[in-house]
Amino acid sequence: MVNTAMRFGVSLGLLILVPLAGCEPADEGPPPQAPPGASWGPPGPPPGDPAAGPAPALAPAPAPAEYTLGEDTDSYDDNDPSALTDFHAALDPVGTWVDDQSYGTVWVPSQAAVGADFTPYSTAGHWVYDNEWVWASDYPWGWAPFHYGRWVMAPGRGWAWIPGRAYRGAWVDWAVNDGYTYVGWTPMPPAFLWFGGVAVGWGGFIGPSWVYCPRGEIFSPAVGARVVSGPAAAPIAVGMRSYVTATPGVAAGPSPQRLGFTAAQTPHPAGSTASSLQRAQAFARPSTAQPLGAHAATPVTAPVARTAVSGSTFSSTRPSITTPSRAAESSPHAATPGGVHVPSGAPATGSAHTAPPASRSSGWHGGGGGGGHHR
């Protein structure tokens, strides 16, 4: 009888425990075990003499420095005034700094250094790819003006470089045709000009100087000999359109894969090209640029008064451009296919062209030096 009662009690206990066990999460494991000598909680007070009284309170931790959420404190704005000084050592021996009536302070390469038919991003260099299109210049000083600043065709001077302080693999706009048989590019116009040491916002129109390259030749070591430009490019230009990326606000050329190149066929920076690129990238951040002789970054977000220069009216705010993520993205050139700039006051003299006719669609692509117009 006793044995029967005991068996009944054990069975009843099991019947109770089984439903309770079913209420636990299936993936609940045993609690973590601290290693020998370690504690999972905050450490207790150190041992001491009980008669000595309570331990003194710890000093409060210093308050964190104030900063804007998401701000990159180790970078230069494109219109940082150090752009006017940091590149002198590299560029003074091969060119001249001048104050141009139309484009302000610019650097003009000497003909002895670049030749009579120099065209930026076409002469003496080639393309490589490093998560973006990178212009690999053959000039030993090319790490500076092809990764910083903008190029414009200044009247009576030829190609002139407007200093900028934000890094990019190449400051160019891109175009393709429907079959991607040709790829085109042109120097991106400036977002600001330098007058009296101050960056003044600029929204004038510059006729783009497009060059077009058969897609299979774009990685040619002498790509300048493969491109078509000028009047000969007119038949190609009519079939071209601006290349627009899928990511809003990001401007870049078509990927090599989009052009039919495999990963093994895509050249990346190597050798002297890699060394030049490393120098250019080192100049992009104050922490690595200052040891090379560059200046510290200067905040440049204060507004600049509206100013009339050479009969032109410029925007009243100084652009604040913090990364290589397309400094001129807000310019009309970037928004309008083919880089047509809607003039808000073109230079009194210079390479200003007539604005596109109002009857054109938004896809009108100014041919400029490239010949014709893009649809």
Would you summarize the structure shown here?
With about 375 residues, the chain is α+β, with helices and mostly antiparallel strands. It has 7 helices and 17 strands. A hairpin with a 3-residue loop joins strand 1 (about 95-100) and strand 2.
Question: How would you characterize this protein structure?
Answer:
With 375 residues, the protein is an alpha+beta fold. The chain has one domain (81-369). Helix content is 14%, strand content 18%. It has seven helices and 17 strands. The protein has helices at 2-22, 88-91, 111-114, 234-237, 271-282, 286-289, 332-335, and strands at residues 95-100, 104-109, 125-129, 133-137, 150-154, 158-162, 172-177, 182-187, 192-195, 198-201, 211-214, 228-229, 240-242, 308-309, 312-313, 365-366, 373-374. The chain has a five-stranded antiparallel sheet. Strand 16 and strand 17 form a beta hairpin. The protein is globular. The termini are far apart.
Spell out the helices and strands N to C.
HHEEHEEEEEEEEEEHEHHEEHEE
Query: How many helices in DSSP terms?
Result: 7
Rounded mean pLDDT is: 72
Distance between the termini: 102 Å
Strand order of the largest sheet: 12-11-8-7-13
Strand content bin: 15-25%
Q: Structural class, judged by helices and strands?
A: alpha+beta
Low-confidence stretches: 1-70, 305-372
Q: Mind summarizing the main beta sheet?
A: 5 strands, antiparallel
Count of the domains: 1
Helix content: 10-25%
Shape: globular
- In quaternary terms, these chains amount to single chain
What gyration radius follows from the Cα positions, in whole Å? 31 Å
User: How many strand units?
Assistant: 17
